[in-house]
Amino acid sequence: MDFYCVDGCSKCCIEREYYPSIKFGKIGVLILPSEMEKIDLLARRHSISVTILPRVGISRKPDRPEKILAYQLMGRESNGNTCPFLDTESDERSPHGGHKCKIYQDRPLACRAYPLIDSLPPTLDPKCKFCEKCSTADGNINSEIESLSLIQGEMNAGGRYIWRYATGIGEPSHKKQVETGWFLA
Ligand code: SF4
Ligand code: SF4
After folding, report:
1. How much distance in Å is there from the Cα of 160 to the middle of ligand 1?
2. CA 178 to CA 169: how far, in whole Å?
3. Which of 16, 29, 32, 173 lies 20 to 30 Å from 117 when distance is taken between CA atoms?
4. What residues have CB less than 8 Å from 51, skipping those under 6 apart?
5. Which ranges in the chain belong to alpha helices (H)?
6. Are the CB atoms for 53 and 39 separated by under 8 Å?
7. pLDDT tens-digit profile of 31-47?
8. What residue ranges do the domains of the chain occupy?
9. Is 70 in the pocket of ligand 2 (CB under 6 A)?
10. Within 10 A of 172 (CB to CB), how many other CB atoms are there?
11. Residues 119/123/127/129 CA torsion (nearest 10 deg)
């Protein structure tokens, strides 16, 4: 079955998840180092304030990350939800009727790859609204596969130790469990 976006849905631009656990806080949209300058420029062009935190680092020794492989664009709400580039104020809509992305033509690779989370075999994120309805899709996902492989290529740096950054952001009820800073994955 072909993948399509559910009418009126903006779930993936709004809802942010704890990953890999509550301790690490809610994550943002993955931004590759090669995309940082573009995102910064787009934010300034649209007069949007953005918070970008580290996401994944690598090192040869287990003491501290030496190189950052990916950053993350945090949501604009205090609980970590809602991408700052999502237009929730105007009446403009995306082609499938959801809220419009203000930078759609220039959106990050992670947004172009979603809801694909693995390509061998192609696997869609069960939290995507389409998957909630139809479980999975095997068609109309070529551009998502291409974007995911670009991300995987850039993140395949082969460090011995992998680090994850805990964002410190989450729901008020989880404040005591959420941490901030680097942890070995
Ligand atoms: S990718 Fe999935 S969650 Fe995102 S807008 Fe489309 S249907 Fe909704
Ligand atoms: S950059 Fe655009 S497509 Fe990506 S999460 Fe934000 S609003 Fe959605």
Report:
1. 35
2. 7
3. 173
4. 28, 73, 74, 84
5. 11-14, 36-45, 109-113, 129-134, 142-155
6. no
7. 999 999 999 999 999 99
8. 11-184
9. no
10. 7
11. 100
Q: Is 5 in the pocket of ligand 2 (CB under 6 A)?
A: no
Q: Which two tokens stand for residue 57?
A: 């680092």
The residues with which 59 forms a beta bridge, in sequence order, are 161
DSSP 38: H
Q: What is the pLDDT of residues 72-104, one digit of tens each?
A: 999 999 999 999 999 999 999 999 999 999 999
Return the amino acid letter for 117: I
End-to-end CA distance of the chain: 36
Q: Which residues contact 91 (CB under 8 A, 6 or more apart)?
A: none
Residue type, 26: K
- Cα separation of 7 and 22, whole Å? 31
Decide the pairing of beta strands 52-59 and 161-167: antiparallel
Asked if 161 and 64 count as a contact pair (C-beta separation under 8 A), the reply is no
Please count the residues of the chain: 185
Enter the pTM of the model: 0.95
- Looking at residue 171, its amino acid is E
Q: Which atom of ligand 1 is nearest to the CA of 10?
A: 5
Residue of 50, 74, 85 best suited for mutating to test ligand 2, as the one with most atoms within 8 Å of CB: 85
